[in-house]
């Protein structure tokens, strides 16, 4: 028996990434707490993916809730044009203090995709303002994912970004293989020798291509990309919307390569997963290219809810937790437990790979996969794990206990074994 709000509302909602004709109905949630999702029918699921990688401190964290409530009473929202407020300026200062010195200008928006749009717009206009309007293409990589708005889609993997379906409607960019080998590197180098003069920026998810298949690469790739961008006068954008805030074992993935981007995008765990917020952070020299006497040179972008005070308060609260809790140590613990406990999946027929980086655990399958069947099996095991493509993965909250994490890894072993015997 479904609750009344479900029965009356379900025929009026359009769900994401869902074939509404054939997909199983979504599960009604009544509330969340810690790493648990409570369903309306009384079932409880241990969450293995932290609501699309956002709820890094677990759900309903008391400290984040407290600061949100205080902010709610003071000022839930005010426009950011011509006005500023303490939560936003405090957050901008705290963020830039986490980065290398020159990465010091923060532009807020409300979603990861929009922060990518802003990064693209910033890099193209950077070159326009400098007198090189022909540098207006973005170079991106196969397997990349940067969001669902049209600019962001244009820099996704062509399949993931549905470039065929939307041909002619989204901008055409340069998409090439991410250089993991010397061979790939020389292909990219050759490509740039021809095309760099048309290229405004290169965009990459550092260390992990997330939604494109949880594909890892080494930190040396970041060093090589930085060198290439410097040599060919191209801005480098690191999209840390997934990898940021400790997911790969360091606060930001780019720190592992010891190189920094010209523009950085952040979202998801920025507010500890409580409320939407995103940021596009630019180096000072990028910012300075927008400064002159003409309004035309200014960055003409301004989402209505940018720098929403509630969102900024939540992000400040989340940063308090990063400062006061041993989160990197927790990520290390989770990483080593996932390494130990997922390894046995490797021997299941049909498992193509098992890999772990930071608090990301991946079991890659090969062969015929019914996502609906897999997802249903996980719910029956009492866990919330949502495979996509051929990837079964865990990105739990950093607060997850050893016991709960074991329930998740065992569920993966059980369900993947069952799938393999089907
Ligand atoms: C690396 C990366 N960039 C951008 C996005 C888009 O973010 P949003 O869904 O908030 O628009 C995502 C979302 O998964 C992402 O993983």
Describe this structure in words.
With 422 residues, the chain is α/β, with parallel strands linked by helices. The protein has 13 helices and 16 strands. The protein has two domains: 4-60 and 326-421, Alpha-Beta Complex (Aspartate Aminotransferase, domain 1); 63-324, Aspartate Aminotransferase, domain 2 (3-Layer(aba) Sandwich), CATH 3.40.640. Strand 5 (137-141), helix 6 and strand 6 (174-176) form a beta-alpha-beta unit. Bound molecules: pyridoxal-5'-phosphate (PLP).
Which key terms come to mind for this protein?
binds pyridoxal-5'-phosphate, 2 domains, 36% helix, 13 helices, 17% strand, 422 residues, four-stranded mixed β-sheet, alpha/beta, seven-stranded mixed β-sheet, Aspartate Aminotransferase, domain 1, Aspartate Aminotransferase, domain 2
How would you concisely characterize the structure shown here?
With 422 residues, this protein is an alpha/beta fold. It contains 13 helices and 16 strands.
Bound molecules: pyridoxal-5'-phosphate
Question: Helix-strand pattern, N to C?
Answer: HEEEHHHEHEHEHEEEHEEEHHHEEHEEH
Q: Please state the overall shape, judged from the principal axes of the Cα atoms.
A: globular
Integer count of domains: 2
Q: Please state the second-level CATH architecture of the largest domain.
A: 3-Layer(aba) Sandwich
What is the share of helical residues?
A: 25-40%
Radius of gyration: 22 Å
What name does the CATH topology of the largest domain carry? Aspartate Aminotransferase, domain 2
Number of helices: 13
CATH superfamily of the largest domain: Type I PLP-dependent aspartate aminotransferase-like (Major domain)
* Main structural class: alpha/beta
End-to-end span in angstroms? 31 Å
Strand content is 15-25%
* Largest sheet composition: 7 strands, mixed
CATH level 1 name of the largest domain: Alpha Beta
